[in-house]
Amino acid sequence: MSDSIFAEGFRTDPYWWDAVPRDAGAGLPAEALPERADVVVVGSGYAGLHAAITLSRAGSEVVVLEAGPLGLGASTRNGGMVSGGVNVGKHASLDPATADEMLAEAAESYGWFEGFIRDEKIDAMYQRCGRFVGAHTRAAWLKQAEEVARLNDIADSGASMVPADRTHDHLASDFYHGGMLLDRSGAVHPAKLHHGVLSVAEAAGVSLFGGIRAGAITRSGTGLEVETSEHAIRAGAVIIATNGYSGDLSPWHQRRVVPVPSYQIATEELGAECVTELFPTHRMIADTKRLLYYFRPSPDRKRVLFGGRARYLKHDPAAGAAFLRSRLLRVFPQLDGVKLSHGWWGNVAYLRDGVPHVGESRPETLPGVFHALGCHGSGVVMMSWLGHRAGLMAAGSLNRPSAFSGRRLDAFPGFRKTPWFLPMVGKYYGFRDWLERRLDG
Ligand SMILES: Cc1cc2nc3c(=O)[nH]c(=O)nc-3n(C[C@H](O)[C@H](O)[C@H](O)COP(=O)(O)OP(=O)(O)OC[C@H]3O[C@@H](n4cnc5c(N)ncnc54)[C@H](O)[C@@H]3O)c2cc1C
């Protein structure tokens, strides 16, 4: 028997694509690309699709442009863990009133998200299974405990604390010192979710184009012109929903959105009994470290899916998978010998102030260009919601301001194209996490 850590047929595509393969042919043929549209949406992830659905239902002619096959980005690569905003602003220094407003809107977004899945009958394997957020130190546990009342008051999170000696009720691991339970939280199959939202967009009359890259956006008469890899399109408004894949579409946005890679692995089938032993309550798991691990049972409960930071600039899914497997074994040493069936990665988007943004990017110099950007790693619900809100803004029908709009989208000093600083930041955060655990004993 081979001693490789990779199972036979190991794949560097997301595990989710086994059930929903990327179909380069999906969407309309390039010849159907119109010369003009009311709104051009760039990006076919959850944000772009929800913006498009909202606008199309309000009567606009909407074109969605996707550089790769539809849904190539993070929306079909993520961990499928959904919640009502417990992570919002985690990396930011916000005044308490703003933080509370954001939490309240994030909680609202979760109700909206559940309603959308239910009303549109989307088969996303959605379960409201709850989440366990493991504390990496005793101090982190105490900090979590301070947040419980706020989460329950503002977001109705169903939050409660698990003492260290009850961790095993939720996780067959000694890695954490207890943690926080969140009931208003769940799981989806992200690619099935994306497929369902795509079908809703098609049914709403959105024109979807895969394999067409959007280029420079300029003023043209009273409107805008978007260059594309086919031909230019005139539009009244443009929505940028490109997440950590923004690239050189717009240099202005590029300097404001840092792409941060997140890696994931899937184990070979371990069997439902073994997975239930590891996750007795089948909750989604995250933790309090700066470089967090996020992991879960697969929707069929036969595998473990495990994610975290692995590599920052030179991407190599197999090397990244090997690294993450070593982290998986820190949490579940009993899985020594386990083989991996899949290892993949995708980008998330970080903004300078550490919170998601929705709004008109440059109303003075390029009016009509909107953005929904900056998931900071938690965007299944939030970016769907902000895409929807961007659609309302572009339609001029947003009836109240969003807690995520009106903030300045600042550039990162010294950053243009390559986030050269990420390996250093990663090392520094890794060191802080390690030191805290070390000092904690
Ligand atoms: C590995 C991983 C794990 C994650 N886990 C979770 C999780 O468990 N829970 C959670 O809530 N969030 C998670 N996230 C975050 C979540 O997936 C994202 O926030 C969300 O999918 C973002 O959706 P989006 O529509 O903004 O972007 P995306 O889905 O990334 O779509 C952006 C699209 O824009 C396209 N594009 C870029 N430039 C152009 C151009 N010039 N022309 C045309 N198209 C262009 C890209 O090709 C891409 O398809 C995870 C992300 C990753 C990568």
Element layout with pairings:
Layout: E1 6-11, E2 36-42, H1 46-57, E3 62-66, E4 81-83, H2 96-119, E5 131-134, H3 138-155, E6 159-162, E7 179-182, E8 185-187, H4 190-203, E9 207-210, E10 214-220, E11 223-228, E12 233-240, H5 251-254, E13 258-267, H6 272-278, E14 284-287, E15 294-297, E16 304-308, H7 317-331, E17 340-350, E18 357-360, E19 369-373, H8 382-394, H9 422-440
Helix pairs in contact: 1-4, 1-8
Residues 42-48, 65-68, 72-75, 77-82, 213-214, 241-243, 245-247, 249, 262, 264, 294, 307, 346-348, 375, 377-380, 383 line the site of flavin-adenine dinucleotide.
In short:
The chain is of the alpha/beta class and 441 residues long. It has nine helices and 19 strands.
Q: Can you characterise this structure?
A:
This protein is an alpha/beta fold and 441 residues long. The chain has a domain at 128-187 and 259-350 and 422-440: D-Amino Acid Oxidase, subunit A, domain 2 (D-Amino Acid Oxidase, Chain A, domain 2), CATH 3.30.9.10. The protein has nine helices and 19 strands. Strands 2, 3, 9, 10, 11, 12, 18 and 19 form an eight-stranded mixed sheet that branches. The chain has a five-stranded mixed sheet with strand order 1-17-13-16-15, with helices on one face. The mean pLDDT is 95. Flavin-adenine dinucleotide (FAD) binds at residues 42-48, 65-68, 72-75, 77-82, 213-214, 241-243, 245-247, 249, 262, 264, 294, 307, 346-348, 375, 377-380, 383.
